[in-house]
Amino acid sequence: MDLDSMSKVPGWLTNIKEYVDRLHGMMPQLANDLGTDGVQATGTYPGANRVYAQAQQAYIALDGQLNATSSQVAAAIAVTQQIVQNYTTTEALNKANAADIEKLFTDQGGSATASASTFPSASSSSPDSSNSSGTDGSSTSSNSSGSDGTSTSGGYDGQG
């Protein structure tokens, strides 16, 4: 997810939290409608008190779930805002570092794009030899030529 998309997430979550909070705000009216007496809420038929008790349990559960959901969405908003802030800061630092690196190359008379001539080659480290490491960490050594130009050796040491 890119920074532009991620920066929109707190707004979406805020809309969800507002909706959940609005629902939670309706709970007192629902409690008032249920009343405190099973007969008042459900009528006078056999089992009315049982239905009222179930409605009360559902009310309590829903009230708790809405409250918890609101808190969890608020936490998600805070975390997402922190991620966006950290990502923005990191992005700015990366751009600044890239600008610093580009400036170093430019100040040295080169271009912003490094060329092979910018870095010394391994063969220029000494006139007679160069050492390098293989991708597996093994070391190879080679001599281009002896002082009389007749000796050439080098290659793989057999360890892999």
Can you walk through the features of this model?
The protein is mostly helical. It is built from four helices and three strands. It has helices at about 5-25, 25-35, 40, 50-105, and strands at about 130-135, 140-145, 155. A three-stranded antiparallel β-sheet has the order 1-2-3, with no helix packed on it. Helix 1 runs antiparallel to helix 4 and helix 2 (about 25-35) runs antiparallel to helix 4 (about 50-105). It is rod-shaped, with a radius of gyration of 36 Å.
Cα radius of gyration in angstroms? 36 Å
Q: In what range is the share of β-strand residues?
A: 5-15%
- Average residue-wise pLDDT: 73
Cα-to-Cα separation, first versus last residue: 42 Å
What spatial order of strands do you see in the largest sheet?
1-2-3
Topology:
Layout: H1 3-25, H2 27-34, H3 38-42, H4 48-107, E1 129-133, E2 139-143, E3 153-155
Antiparallel strand pairs: 1-2, 2-3
Helix pairs in contact: 1-4, 2-4
Note the main attributes of this structure.
60% helix; three-stranded antiparallel β-sheet; mainly alpha
Q: Nutshell version of this structure?
A:
The chain has 160 residues and is mainly alpha-helical. Helix content is 60%, strand content 8%.
